[in-house]
Amino acid sequence: MTALNKSRLLLALPLVLLSLSTSARAGSVSGDIDTGFQNAGLGGGTVTYLAHSQQFTTLASGPNDRTNLSTVSNLNGQTFQFNLPVVQGATISVSKGFLRGSKTYSPVVGFKDRAKPPADVTIQDIASVSGSFQGRATLVPTRGNTTGHVSARGTNTSPNQDTGKAAASAVDPFEVAPGVHSYGQTINLSLQLDFASESGGVTYFALDSRFTDLDTFFDQEDPFGEALWALSVFANGPTDSLSSVDVDFMVNPMARSLGLFNPSLSDMQLEDAVRDALSLNGNLVSLTDFSLFPGGTMLTVRSEDGNIQFGMGVSASIEAAGAAAVPEQGTLALVLVGLGPLARVCGWHRRRHGLPGRRP
């Protein structure tokens, strides 16, 4: 399924809780990561959907004022579950860049370690809406030879530059048996900010049960130091140039040293490849069907490891801190998803860049 087809599929879902109007202004953060590597897996596993929203000014709302789960099935059409439960202890983390700390969002609604939807389900997502702010997490399941994906989105439709925030995260885990598995990963990204008061970012990541507990990953405020790899794309203020976007990439150094994950490029080379692939159209920064790793990248699962749990995930957030510059009339502001920091390797990462300490 191409990125355009995936986008059309997501946009075809009715926004039950919030009607987006581009006649005013609309900001949104969104990104997706394919789950095609499941074809090398044994199935099983669960899925996690988390979302958060809150508006602070004009008509204060939330957190998580209105929530729902939408399921589209070949058998039952589209069905809804409203008033989603708060996921106790869970947090959505979004990195401003691994050297700049992270933003965290709670309380979150949704489901952690939920059973995967049955075979007749073609798409499932959750939404949290408070005033003009919406967080949304989506799963399109991998079915046979059809590659699925998970996506996260945050939206701000306030015409008054209201302050607020929205965030979402989705992870799709499954089992992988011992062996040497060819590994590829494709992502899509869009990022547009028009106000100096806005910030937003995206985090893509992979989880491997040899380095983290997938059941408790979201119970941590800064969990990404336990990821197999993670990519952060983040911006503060108008994205009117590619230099306004901060890109950070890290492969778990233990996975490299043990030979369990073997990209032929260094972290800095992978980071530069992402940065070079970004395109700019006005204030819209985008990345389309981008392959993160070079051909020949392998994931090794040793016989002594047994079957491992492996999952792809994405987190996104958008924040509006207050009134600032007014965008050009008719501009549609799209912001992109967020990522949490790699706490355990920040010192190593600073040394890699030749920096003495954390940037402000």
What does this molecule look like?
The protein has 360 residues and is mostly beta strands. The chain has one domain. It has four helices and 20 strands. The strands form four sheets. A nine-stranded antiparallel beta sheet has the order 4-3-8-9-10-1-13-18-17, with helices on both faces. The protein has a seven-stranded antiparallel beta sheet with strand order 7-2-11-20-14-15-16. A hairpin with a 6-residue loop joins strand 5 and strand 6. The N terminus and C terminus are likely disordered.
Secondary structure layout plus pairing:
Layout: H1 3-12, E1 27-34, E2 46-55, E3 66-73, E4 77-82, E5 92-95, E6 102-105, E7 109-115, E8 121-130, E9 133-140, E10 149-156, E11 164-176, E12 179-182, E13 186-192, E14 198-208, E15 229-236, E16 245-251, H2 253-257, H3 267-277, E17 279-281, E18 284-291, E19 298-301, E20 308-320, H4 346-352
Antiparallel strand pairs: 1-10, 1-13, 2-7, 2-11, 3-4, 3-8, 5-6, 8-9, 9-10, 11-20, 12-19, 13-18, 14-15, 14-20, 15-16, 17-18
